[in-house]
Here is the input.
Amino acid sequence: MAKSKRISFLAELCKGYETVLDIGTDHGFVLKEAFDKQYIKHGIAADLREMPLRQAKGNLKNYPVTYRLSDGFLAIKEHFDLAIIAGMGAYLICDIMDHAPKREVTYLLQANEKTHILRDYLRHHGFIIIDEYLVFDRFYYIILKVKRGQMTLNEEDLYLGPILKIKQESKAYYMHKIAQIDKIMPQADELRKDELKKVRQFYESVKLW
Ligand SMILES: C[S@@+](CC[C@H](N)C(=O)[O-])C[C@H]1O[C@@H](n2cnc3c(N)ncnc32)[C@H](O)[C@@H]1O
Here is the structure.
């Protein structure tokens, strides 16, 4: 059974891929659901730490999974066609992506916050965002589907998302972001206020309504 909408959504996005590498697998739930739904044939469960990897081993007993203690991609020698890096901070995901393979691979990246930092990294490091998904699971989560390639994003795109900004479902998310900004604005110092006003304007400018 799905642990959360976010996990289910990530598992769903594995459909059609052969071998999925899950970096920072922790409990291994994404791979488990992808196997249970018969979306994938092989999995590589990787984590920086022993404890989470042990949890994944427990949850994925008798599934065709290879386990790797690895800092990001560094100890991964096996072939994979999809890599997931989810549920971490944007800066950590950027650090991990510094060592992404040069060959053709698809990535699902989901930062817990500051997705604009991740988009900024991607545009400067030879990656292209091929899709963006919004999942509401108590909080809003943004999942980026990414490949190697070139893209141009302006500052507005970093916040709105080049693809999310043309999806009708993003409206509720942008309104939520505006409300969040309005809440923190009174406590912000002048410099931060200017930054918040600029970002608020990006959200307000979207022509989805
Ligand atoms: C909050 S959990 C996210 C679990 C799962 N990916 C999800 O989306 O629910 C983060 C996991 O990433 C692992 N991690 C942190 N830094 C890592 C790195 N550099 N390489 C691999 N795993 C890492 C942690 O040990 C932890 O198990």
The first helix runs from residue 5 to 12. The first strand starts at residue 19 and ends at 23.
